[in-house]
Model the fold of this input.
Amino acid sequence: MKGLIGKKLGMTQIFDESGAVQPVTLIEAGPCYVTQIRSEKNDGYSAIQLGFGETKPGRLTGGQLGHLKRSESPTVRYLREFRVRDAGSLKNGDKLTVDVFAIGDRVDVVGTSKGRGFQGGVKRHGFRGGPKTHGQSDRQRAPGSHGATSTPGRVFKGSRGPGHMGNERVTSQNLRVEFVDLERNLLGVKGSVPGPRGGLVVVKEARKQ
Done:
């Protein structure tokens, strides 16, 4: 299984073999611990639950501590599931590190985008706005008319307009692993990754390779 939970550290750049600059995002991936193995027989589907981010036992609830105690895992803060067809040789309490990935692998990175609050149509959807001339004074960033006439006489649900922006689950697909640092549990992937610095991300094998 190729999958880890991690924390986004930020962006930097490296030079490849030809001397070209490559933008990379640094992710502190793992160490993760197998906290539960779900099977088709017991749960109706096959998956592996991983835990990440060791913390003090006092920061977890009694239910969380009991769940981790059954798998003999450390007290971890975050739990995520990875769907697999077969758990293979993995068992409860196993430790996974960045060595599950190698340079050149393609991965998907799932994170939560930065929250932007309430935004207008121009920033949220890229609307053009109103005319920049002909005496307009307050229509430059207005979305304009987007309803129909007397039939149906309303705006359909789901139409694009001003509203809450960001703070959503986002997946960056098919990113290339540029380097792996086993000593510092660092993973470098080419390109950008959703979320702020310090945000929780899930790194898994790319679905579209």
Q: What stands out?
A: The helical segments are 40-43, 62-70, 121-125.
